[in-house]
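ASSEMBLY PREDICTION REQUEST
Request ID: AP-0331
Submitted by: J.K., bench scientist
Number of chains: two
Total residues: 471
Priority: normal
Notes: Please return the full assembly, not individual chains.
Input sequences:
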Amino acid sequence: MKLYELQGVTREFKGRKVLDLPHLAIESGKIYSLIGPNGAGKTRLLNILAFLDRPTSGEIDFCGEQVTYCKQGLLALRRRVVLVDQYPILFTGPVWKNVEFGLKVRGVARQARTDRVHEVLSLVGMEDFFKAEAEKLSGGETKRVALAMALAVRPEVLLCDEPCANVDEENQKIIIQILDRINREQSTSIVFSTHYLAQGRSLAHGELHLEHGRLCVKSEQSQSLVLPVNLNHGQLH
Amino acid sequence: MDLLVDSIRSAFLLFLACDPELLDIVLVSLKTSGMSTLIAALFGVPAGFFIAHSNFFGKRLLLTILNTLLALPTVVIGLLVYAFISRRGMFGSLDLLYTQTAMIIGQVILVTPLVTSLVLAAISRIDARYRKTAMTLGANDTQVALVILREARFGICAAIIAAFGRVIAEIGISMMLGGNAKGFTRTMTTAMALEYDKGEFVLAVALGLTLMTIAFALNMLFHFFQGRIESEVV
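STATUS: Completed
Returned structure:
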């Protein structure tokens, strides 16, 4: 099933075309890596896929329905898709308050929120940080909490902008494991951007190569998912 | 020098005796200043938020007007409001002149631009990723606004404290619209001016000390909030 279908999508910034995608289809339930150099338009495309930005022209279908960009429609769509920023920022306050944010705005009951916060913090290996002040976390810990915030709302689509950038090797492995696991266990569709070809190939079912805002190659990997040999699944709870 | 020392000593005695006139004046000052700051905050905080987060035609002009209003002399506001609420004015029938309400109206006009400007500055400093994060996590417009206001809370508090400090120390509006009526519209600043005119320095010094103590406490609060903001930025 097609998750996204973009037709003639362009995005202009200060009169310059920064994204030009005649056609792009993304399948549901798969992991896609978005590969390209700096300035290729990866973040801008992720923002469009997250419905946080709208294209200058073109049409987007999400799950077979055309995106209309009306206020209520956008809110409903944003509640199905979550974007984790390249440099995530956490709200001031404890980690648990950050993680429950998405649930709270959806009106989820307190006990259910608390249970879910424990569950996702455990998933990202940050359960010990439940009461920790968010501003005191390291870069890698912040990324994992940001991932927990996104996963707490059980999104249909998880978009990650450079999830492994600026974090140490250990955190990179953990993040990759989490993405793989939620795709396998919850069938969450994932699109993540990366600079690293090897990282993209190790995790993704499909690759999207962007250069100067244009799609160069779109390849589907038919073989099953191959994780790096040094990943330790035992680290996940 | 003796005059000043004697006045300070007598002023302390007034404090210790809880002089009713002194207390009355301080209470009127706190009441009118508190009320006008509250009303200015109710207008200024949403206005500052709206201006910071909107792009509209004439925004630059509005910011220029807002900055100009920061320099508006209290006597000009006094004259303006007087023209509306005096017997011959548009709202003369409401009998507002020389009442605390009139003082509050004038003071609200004085500090609303100040609150708006400072809140605008505080909100503009908030990292844009807070908004983006709240939006992608499914927050609606109101919930996003609450997130931003929460993150800017120290800056907003500092804006309100600065406004209260401005309004409690003003004299032009209180004198022109309040009329300095004893026990009713006499504030610390208008009472000080009156006592000075009469050559009675004791009460004037006592009120001056009270005003300075309040100003000191406000500045301590202001620096506390500023410190919190800076430590967050670092």
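REVIEWER COMMENTS: Residues 120 and 148 of chain A are 5 Å apart (CA to CA).
SIGN-OFF: pending second reviewer
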